[in-house]
Amino acid sequence: MRIVLQRVAHASVTVDGHETGSIGKGFLLLLGVSDTDTEEIADKMVDKICRLRIFPDENGKTNLSLSQVEGEILVVSQFTLYADCRKGNRPSFAGAGSPQLANHLYEYAAARFGTFAKRVQTGSFGADMKVSLLNDGPFTLVLDSETICPATT
To answer: How far apart are CA 34 and CA 113, in angstroms?
Structure first.
């Protein structure tokens, strides 16, 4: 599982001109799934992300977690995080998980994020989405289950 996390002041996603999700302060998460991912991996990634202390405290130090700032989460499926650009000029997406597995783990992770976040919103799996955000910091992290939870991959 690969996740690009952006700490945002606000973010939204639209499909066909209709907003499917929007949040205030929190995390915009672009989430990609591979065929080797499991619910156990999703659990570990969700726990890691929600416990990250990357919001500023009263002294401006990154000491606060999502729950401590009553942050929100917007999760957007992103199979292109598994693009392989080593050969030629057209990326291969063979490393991305099957749509059935990816959708299941996407929905599973979104539900699990709800145990930590004040509010969780989502995009629309498999749709052509338009994402808008105001990156706060900017603060962007790339998390890969191969490095976050190697014992389970």
So the answer is: 19
